[in-house]
């Protein structure tokens, strides 16, 4: 603690991302990265961006990328906001739509960055408990609040809430903004994007980090009514005029255009997830019904923390959260088939 | 104005960056970009970053880039913070070191993003008037305050305040953080970096956008006592775990390492600035004594706004600020010699 820190800094408890160790080569199943490389077209586009024009500022409005995204989703350009990873888009959303003093709602088990944003912007919150199977009950969001955010599929559970329930929440809370964090929706969930033209209070946030294999490029975006997008633009333009560099802009455009590549790699991940779940169950794990690029699993007799450490020793990184209700679970990213075969093999040794 | 906007968004008046028009090809002297391309080594590094590893998150701590910067400045790695452009580093600094209710100080004529950050974080401020020649008087900063920020050289004037005056300000305000925005210091000013090991309350902010020809890559950094850097890290890690993408990290490292290239292009810009000033004076301009990569000039008989518009029609973009005290000045970025010769030629026609 330094006397020079602001009151904000003193109260912060920053988010801790999954480790990126360099001590040895791991099978890395701990940060929900895509095991397949990005679209070759996206890679080429990034290389093309590396030229003399790097001396010039990027387009502060990111117009072309917004157009590509708008076209992809059948929306207008003014319904699209882009940012430096979906984390930045989320941060701007907290600043743009939530106020101090009026508690917002989010599930008790979800992306742990949400309470951190609340601390950063001094926003109060109330958590809504998931049921024992980690389902989000829509009914619990039908109460007075200053705004709502949830991830769908949820993290780290992977559980998806069906769209009629999402719509019920959006409809009931017509005077508040409902933010739906769809970082993982591409792996089998149904997107709430189709509700955007019907409700002015829904904001859908996406990322290229998972489904488009571009965690290293930092591109996220938000889709919603033009008024909500304008609010985000006001925050962004009061923070940093140019949040996306030229490489990120060009790489993202091409990644979104290359739908064929994205669908192929996504389908592979879904197919792998479908066999990994049953294999884990055979080994004595309870596995949540995940529609994300990870599974969430708890073993009937061995502690998650022990399994986490044992896997690490064997060169396999998974994510363990030492938090109430989920401290006996592992979140395991879906890697390639050979990586997951290796995981199962190592687990057989540990639990066998 | 939307009913969904937070109170913060409603009160914001976002910053407006210089225009990036696409209607025709301009000689672009309006956003202080470097007229020379980035180091070829930096370009190659960005290309190398465009590979399969883009599927992985970048290093959230930016350790290697920090080490390169630390080594360059003879500092320790924990005295270095890096961000997505110096605008982001500035934004984090306002959040990290300034509090609501205790007005901070900055010059009345300076980078207009400072009051915008104040609005974003609800920080009060008092402006300190420059004298008639746009000098910053150090004595005016020797008063009660909640923190201080100034650009040195200042923008849009280009005027540099000598280090003994900077030190006087830092010394007097030992209980407050003094932020020195050195975006333009590489073009002839003396950096306050040498004061860092002496004073725990000084934070120096830099960018690769101007002197390293990398406006399109979005990399800025801050140098200061490890406690100040830790404060910035806490804000950053409560906002976005990964603010620099893999391309930016690798390009920035190589740009800083290539000091030979940087010195060569910087010297060219200084030499151009040295002849442009007198030429403008011959045409009836009063030109401030700039140590930046731009000059700030006012014509004895023709209005700056008229000159701005006339130059635009002739395919030359400069920056005009319709603001008190400087609404009869033009800020003209130093381009290549041929670009500046063309500027002088066109101005001769307009004012002749």
Brief synopsis:
Chain A has 352 residues and is α/β, with parallel strands linked by helices. Chain A has helices spanning 7-11, 40-49, 63-73, 86-97, 113-121, 163-172, 226-236, 246-257, 259-282, 304-313, 337-351; strands spanning 27-28, 80-83, 104-107, 125-128, 148-151, 178-181, 202-207, 220-224, 285-287, 294-299, 316-317, 319-320, 330-333. In chain A, 57% of the residues are buried.
Q: What's the mean pLDDT score of chain A?
A: 97
| CATH domain class name of the largest domain in chain A | Alpha Beta
**CATH architecture label of the largest domain in chain A:** 3-Layer(aba) Sandwich
SSE pattern of chain A: HEHHEHEHEEHEEEHHHEEHEEEH
Poorly predicted regions of chain A are none
Which structural category fits the helices and strands of chain A?
A: alpha/beta
Most extensive interface: pair and counts?
Answer: A-B, 88 and 87 residues
Describe the biggest sheet of chain A? 5 strands, mixed
The proportion of residues in beta strands of chain A is 5-15%
Number of separate domains of chain A: 2
Topology, number of strands of chain A: 13
How helical, in percent, are the residues of chain A?
A: 25-40%
Q: Tell me the radius of gyration of chain A.
A: 20 Å
Oligomeric composition of the shown chains? homodimer
Q: How would you describe the shape of chain A?
A: globular
CATH topology of the largest domain in chain A: Aspartate Aminotransferase, domain 2
Biggest β-sheet: strands ordered side by side in the sheet of chain A: 2-8-7-6-5
CATH superfamily of the largest domain in chain A: Type I PLP-dependent aspartate aminotransferase-like (Major domain)
Count of helix runs of chain A: 11
The rounded distance between the terminal residues' Cα atoms of chain A is 47 Å
């Amino acid at each position: 603690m330094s006397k020079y820190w602001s009151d904000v800094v003193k109260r912060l408890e920053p988010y801790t991302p999954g480790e990126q160790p360099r001590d040895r080569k791991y099978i890395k199943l701990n940060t929900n990265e895509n095991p397949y490389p990005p679209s070759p077209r996206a890679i080429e586009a990034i290389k093309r961006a590396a030229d003399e024009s790097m001396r010039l500022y990027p387009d502060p409005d990111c117009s072309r990328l917004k157009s590509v995204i708008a076209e992809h989703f059948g929306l207008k350009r003014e319904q699209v906001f882009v940012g430096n990873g979906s984390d930045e888009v989320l941060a701007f959303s907290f600043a743009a739509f939530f106020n101090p003093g009026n508690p917002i709602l989010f599930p008790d088990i979800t992306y742990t960055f949400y309470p951190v944003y609340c601390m950063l912007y001094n926003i109060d919150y109330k958590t809504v408990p998931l049921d024992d199977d980690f389902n989000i009950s829509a009914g619990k969001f039908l109460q007075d609040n200053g705004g709502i955010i949830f991830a769908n599929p949820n993290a780290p559970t992977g559980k998806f809430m069906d769209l009629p329930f999402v719509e019920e929440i959006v409809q009931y809370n017509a005077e508040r903004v409902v933010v739906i964090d769809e970082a993982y929706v591409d792996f089998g969930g149904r997107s709430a994007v189709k509700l955007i033209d019907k409700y002015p209070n829904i904001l859908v946030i996406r990322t290229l980090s998972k489904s488009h294999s571009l965690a290293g490029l930092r591109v996220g975006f938000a889709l919603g009514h033009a008024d909500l997008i304008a609010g985000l633009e006001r925050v962004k333009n009061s923070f940093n005029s140019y949040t996306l560099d030229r490489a990120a802009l060009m790489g993202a455009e091409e990644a979104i255009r290359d739908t064929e590549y994205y669908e192929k790699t996504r389908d592979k991940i879904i197919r792998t997830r479908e066999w990994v779940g049953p294999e884990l169950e055979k080994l004595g794990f309870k596995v949540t019904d995940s529609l994300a690029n990870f599974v969430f699993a708890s073993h009937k007799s061995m502690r998650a923390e022990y399994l986490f450490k044992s896997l690490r020793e064997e060169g396999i990184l998974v994510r363990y959260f030492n938090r109430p209700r989920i401290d006996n679970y592992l979140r395991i990213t879906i890697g390639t088939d050979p990586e997951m075969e290796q995981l199962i093999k190592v687990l057989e040794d540990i639990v066998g």
